[in-house]
Amino acid sequence: MKNDFKKALLADCAIPAALEAVGERWSFLILRAAFNGLAHFEEFQSTLGIARNILSNRLARLVEHDILQREPDPGDRRKIAYRLTDKGRELLPVLIALRQWGERWVSGVPSNPVLVDRENRRPIAPIAVRSAEGRLLSLPELEWVDRSEVRPA
To answer: What range does the domain containing 35 cover?
Structure first.
């Protein structure tokens, strides 16, 4: 790989921007809670055991990045509910992949509860990298190339 391309590969990568939006422990735990139906400041605080000032900061950042949105709670207009946006819901595979990785390489034990397909009550498949045609791909089968070299779908 040419040195200039290596520099461009790192410079044009979206990972730093993604980490700026969600890349720290509390943000991921807040998102996990939101995916599991928590919506109110007090619920996040008591469930996660997070300090109020840190929670306030992380919620504000997730709202600022359009991952969560603040809205009046329909059951009590004095309360604010934090809801996942479309952008936030698209983080689900990221959280699932991180959980599956943690089960395999960090904790070594399956998590509970188990995420299942509502239709058949079977656990979801492991997150994997697949080709455009659906083939499972391993690292040796992958290559970084300049966008100008990519074939159209």
So the answer is: 3-149
How many domains does one find in the chain? Answer: 1
The rounded distance, in Å, linking the Cα atoms of 70 and 55 is 14
In this prediction the pTM is: 0.87
Closest CA to 83 of 35, 29, 32: 35
DSSP states along 25-69: HHHHHHHHHHHTT--SHHHHHHHHT--HHHHHHHHHHHHHTTSEE
Q: Is 72 helix (H, G, I), strand (E, B) or coil?
A: strand
Residue whose structure tokens are 């504000």: 60
The CA distances from residue 11 to 6, 15, 18, 149, in Å, are 9, 10, 14, 18
**Listed range (10-19, 44-53, 82-91) with the worst mean pLDDT:** 10-19
CATH of the domain at 44: 1.10.10.10
